[in-house]
Sequence to fold (338 residues):
Amino acid sequence: MNAVVGPDDLRHLVEELAVPRSSLHEPGAAAATEEALAEEFGSAGWEVERQAFHRRVALGVRGRRFGVPWLYHSLHGVNVVARQEGQDAAQVVVVAHRDTVRGSPGADDNASGLAVLVALARTLGPLSSRLSLVLAATDMEEMWALGAPPLVRDLLQRGPVEAAIVVDAIGFTSGPGTQRYPPGFRLAFRRQAGALRARGRRGDFAAVIHGRDAAGLASAVVDGIAASAGGPGAVALPVPTWVARLGGRSRGLAPVISTLCRSDNRAFWAAGIPTVLVTGSGNYRNPHYHRASGEPDTLDYDHLAAVVAGCLRAVSSAAGVGSEPVAAADQSCSGEAV
Fold:
């Protein structure tokens, strides 16, 4: 199967989306992003829902760089959710957050993930599948993943979730000696740390973080990225199932655990859903992380296209995507083979 969206298309998507779009501080831009995503999903043939949620009181974080604990009151957010019904009510879900921290255009974090969602929408739109497909752009992730729990609750009310992929900050790559790790990483992932050290600590890979129940899903993502990139482009990082529950309560106490759980994947893990987080490690690689300098020209769009290919392979396998794209879709901009 060929991806409909290639590197040039991904660059164009990121350029359109990369503006400061905090729900609290840049509400106009946040609303424009919401509308743009709904239009993209609808144009690709998906059923679109704006899932509003309200949090009267929520413990989260506040701040541009790493955030400090903060108690929020009366929050209103919107998750943009696209659905394509399959033959079965069970669901396969791909998630990327749509908000940024205040003042950052967030090309990497997380216009890159939104571009993956749009690429999957365009590619999978003409196809049929055994399981239902869901693409979700969550709100308020930068406030400590506040939009993911209502999304998970809504999904589980509709039917079982067989697999989920969370894509966050995946577009930035860097050269030798640039990849850093949270404290405890080398102890928790000795084999992977050794392999990365042997490659000169290059920040040119996707980290595919997963629980044991999502090993097959993670392998499909890794294999799809490698096939598209023409070599190693991803590293699988398996974590014990208890990490998700501990991670949400250990911020600042166990850095390697809290780092693995700091995106929307935490809500899916806590619900017992087989889930992988696909990420470029954010501040452990990218000097523009959460800064005003996080512009589209800092990203690697060939790498981002490989990530699309990896996610496409995993979703297609998990959901039983069966038919080929229609001829009109095949004539779109060339992508990477899966």
The longest strand covers residues 68-84.
